[in-house]
Amino acid sequence: MLTRNAQKDRDQMQMVTLDDLAPRTHFVRKLEIALDWSFIYDLVEPLYCEDNGRPSTDPVILIKLPVINHIFGLDSMRRTLREVAVNNAYRWFHGLGLQDPAPHFSTFSKNYTRRFQETDLFELGYSVHPGNENDGRTFR
Prior knowledge:
Elements: H1 18-21, H2 27-34, H3 39-44, H4 59-71, H5 77-86, H6 88-94, H7 105-115, E1 126-128, E2 137-139
Antiparallel strand pairs: 1-2
Helix pairs in contact: 4-5, 5-6
């Protein structure tokens, strides 16, 4: 018997949380447990104006993007942002809800090239270990 149910449940409504949709065994859950990302706020606070401009994208999200890019071997930041938009585990890791938009590429790009240019914020995850088979660079 041929069953056709391709569109059967697309409009179905259920009560779920993003925590339920992100696999418990996904590596990003281990990262979130192992690393305390709150130190980033102290590092970037001087780079933001308190009383002028529009609300910013959470800087922890901007720092987590290259982590996802590097660990999962994504070939570009644009692809990383597309993956964050559709992958529930990545959304969970970045603290984005199901209805929250992923940051736009230009948001990441402008922060990387302007706001964080004079910092080593994107190098914090690396350290040099002599004798390592990866040219001495490993992710902490």
